[in-house]
Specification:
Elements lengths: L2 H13 L5 E8 L4 E10 L1 H4 L13 E9 L2 E13 L18 E7 L3 E10 L4 H4 L1 H8 L8 H17 L9 H17 L2 H5 L7 H7 L10 H21 L4 E7 L3 E5 L3 E3 L2 E7 L8 E10 L1 H26 L1
């Protein structure tokens, strides 16, 4: 995706946001397996985009339907699968682009019963660390929605330079790397919004503008590697922008009695969370719950043992007193 396309989409998203509702239901069975069900509901362009893709492949089954009310068409995508143990939902646990949301469901057998643990992790997008002005624009429509562009482009370009310093095939002199970083800052500061917005990055203009003064000093592999990283960080920002008005609802069903949880509410045997990008815009957001199925037989045995110990202690106490 070109840098110009990212700017256009993000600018439009901030002024004309759309909303998608994601309902995720997790039902944990006594044997530790769990059925996970994803339902995304909204406009087709939002349901099928890249910001929160449904899992696919074995063991997932997907069904797509449409609902028409008052001449409005709503798309509903449903994906479900029977799982066991930790699941990552993506090829990379630390992907910059995808929303990393691994889940861990496990159980432990104790003397008085079986404990069940659920932990659903949403990796923070670290927006305020990377481009704070973009974070402010995402948080409130009252903020200036153009100031973030220069800041974001500086982050994308300078981070690409920093990352290439870690690879021996693209590593350059540290002084040269500092000069490039300073040039990137000056470049984005000199450009006004209209110029940045109209960059035709399909031809690599942004990358060429940044690298052109240094081409004679750079390795032959540098330009292509730099372009790939610019595309990666641009896509990361694009995904974050698309998540702005998505709403997530988690419903978790656990066997036995709930011991501890940070759920927003509990209705009967259903633990419920409702949140949006705000909760993981910068920091990680973790949903957790723990329950237990008590073993009546073992509890009875425990009571008998306890009573036996009390009687023994009482016997020796009376004997000693006499």
């Amino acid at each position: 995706m070109s840098l110009r396309t990212v700017l256009i989409i993000l600018f439009v998203c901030l002024f004309a946001p759309s909303c998608v509702e994601h309902l995720i239901t997790i039902r944990v069975f006594p044997d530790g397996r769990y059925l996970m069900d994803f339902v995304s509901r909204g406009d087709s362009t939002d349901v099928f985009n890249e910001d929160f893709p449904h899992p696919f492949g074995d063991p997932w089954v997907t069904n797509i339907e449409t609902e028409i009310t008052d001449d409005e068409k709503t798309w509903v995508m449903n994906t479900s699968g029977l799982l066991y143990g930790p699941t990552a939902f993506s090829s990379g646990h630390s992907s910059l682009v995808e929303v990393a949301h691994p889940i861990d469901v496990r159980f432990e057998k104790g003397f008085f019963g079986t404990h069940y643990f659920v932990s659903q992790f949403f990796k923070g997008r670290e927006v305020f660390r990377k481009y704070p002005k973009f974070g402010n624009s995402m948080s409130s429509i009252d903020n200036d929605t153009t100031e973030w562009i220069s800041e974001a482009l500086y982050y994308i370009g300078s981070t690409a330079v920093y990352d290439l310093q870690k690879d021996s095939t693209t590593m350059i002199n540290s002084l040269l790397a500092d000069r490039m970083e300073n040039y990137i800052r000056g470049y984005v500061d000199r450009k006004n919004f209209t110029e940045l917005y109209s960059i035709e990055d399909s031809s690599g203009l942004f990358v060429r503008d940044i690298l052109n003064p240094f081409l004679d000093e750079l390795p032959s592999t540098y330009e292509l590697a730099f372009q790939e990283l610019v595309d990666l960080y641009s896509k990361e920002m694009h995904i974050t922008g698309q998540l702005r008005d998505d709403q997530f609802k988690f419903h978790i069903f656990l066997p036995g009695v709930v011991i501890t949880t940070n759920a927003d509410s509990i209705s009967g045997d259903t633990l419920m969370w409702t949140f949006g990008l705000k909760e993981f815009l910068n920091d990680d957001y973790i949903l957790h719950a723990e329950s237990i199925i008590y073993s009546k037989k073992r509890i009875q045995i425990g009571i008998i043992i306890l009573l036996g110990l009390v009687l023994i202690i009482a016997f020796f106490f009376i004997k000693f007193k006499r």
